[in-house]
Amino acid sequence: MTTAPTPLLSAQGLHVTFPGRHGTAPARAVDGVELDIRAGEIVALVGESGCGKTTLARSLLGLVPPASGRVSFGGKPLEYSSRALKAYRRRVQLVLQDPSGSLNPRHTVYDAVAEGLRIHGYAGDERATVAQALSRAGLRPPERFFLRYPHELSGGQRQRVVIAGALVLEPELIVADEPVASLDASVRGEILALLLRLRTELGLSALVVTHDLGLAWNIADRVAVMYLGRIVETGDVEQVLTAPRHPYTQALLSVLPDAPGDPVVLTGEPPDPSRIPTGCRFHARCQILASGEAERAGVAEACRSRELKVLDGGGGAQVACHWARAAV
User: Fold this and answer.
1) Where in the chain is the domain with CATH 3.40.50.300?
2) In terms of CATH, what superfamily is 11-18+26-220?
3) Closest to 131 (Cα-Cα) out of 150, 145, 116
4) Which of the residues 19, 228, 283, 288 could staple to 247 if both were Cys, CB 3.0 to 4.6 A apart?
5) What distance in Å separates the CA atoms of residue 293 and residue 301, rounded to the nearest whole number?
6) Which pLDDT tens digit goes with each residue over 247-280?
């Protein structure tokens, strides 16, 4: 029996909490997450705003220490000393949603891309390394962009500069938080194609954080759907997005332009993470419970009162839903 290769990046029993306001209970922003990302793999982390996906991404980057659980990279637990985190961030880089906010308007493109090299005391040929990163990000000839400022670039070009700034340190993994949300449709496709090309050419792994299941379909090998601090469905992207089992995933997919049937309109907002409901954390908004289908399946009481186990991070098809499990 062969053992599975060690994941490149792994979250194990991860919990991230924030202090409550005015003496209220702590907010459980990440509430027990297991997630593995393998070398050369693109994983999409999907969910509504406020579900905890950005906090999870920031914790995986070492920006937010967990209350419990751990993050491992290459099989070794992440250490939180300044020196260890600096070394880690050469290997794992962040690409943010808004390129305008990521770039200092007073810095040229060259300085923006070279910044990481200077922080890490790079001793090689800085000019050649910056040029290579810009070229890999699709800005060619790179020298034409060296002395430009962010306001002189299009939105797509600015995002490519941000990606070049991540690539310049030759990381093994990038965490892209809504990498195309601020771009128009034509440019979105170009940036997604770039990320796929970088995976092919450089063996780069990626965690792509998004609210858009259509984006996940176009770029990811695997998808993890997050709700109220926990992953509620995961598996190969085609399997999850063609035959979603969790009612929350079904609702997210139903509003895509080409989705069959009527959109599922979820009532209310996601609950406050300081007051997570008993039972299934989605039950108060669940269309399956509201329609009586869960009652007919004999699981309605379990939905309201029995908590589901945390899904493991291995990547096989899994769902945290009493009704979906009863239907198997």
Assistant:
1) 11-18+26-220
2) P-loop containing nucleotide triphosphate hydrolases (3.40.50.300)
3) 145
4) 288
5) 12
6) 999 999 998 888 888 899 888 778 889 999 999 9
